[in-house]
Design goal:
Elements lengths: L1 H22 L1 E9 L3 E9 L4 E10 L6 E13 L2 E5 L10 E3 L4 E6 L14 E6 L9 E4 L1
Parallel strand pairs: 4-6
Antiparallel strand pairs: 1-2, 1-9, 2-3, 3-4, 4-5, 5-7, 7-8, 8-9
Length: 142
Amino acid sequence: MKLTITALLLIFNLTLFAQSKQIAGNYTRSLSEEGKHTIEYKLTLNEDGTFEFHSYTKLQGGTPPEVNKYGKGKWSVKNNVVTFSSDKKEDLNSKYTLDFSNSTARFITKKPRDKTDQIVKTRLTFLDSKMFWLKGIDIFKI
């Protein structure tokens, strides 16, 4: 009986680790109009459950013309929904000002059973965030 329970727990933990490893990686999104505006998002999800985010904005006629914003914290996944959190004492400072607390994103990839020629880019779609500009944004895995 103990052996059966141990085996089940091991299989369960391997499944969770495999899902996290699949989601971990670098994501990016670039929105630009040639010669006028540029908005870039870069997100790194580390396998140890931490993340770093960088937002770069360059707007023609903007004040200031270029803006860099950073965020960091921890992430976890359950049922393909990634939940982000930032500890105000540890993760937020003069450089890392973006608070990702209670932000969520859905991990989207082509299903293993899908044998069609349809191309599905692996991405995170932000569902909810305190940062209004992040809701609904797709960030693609590179």
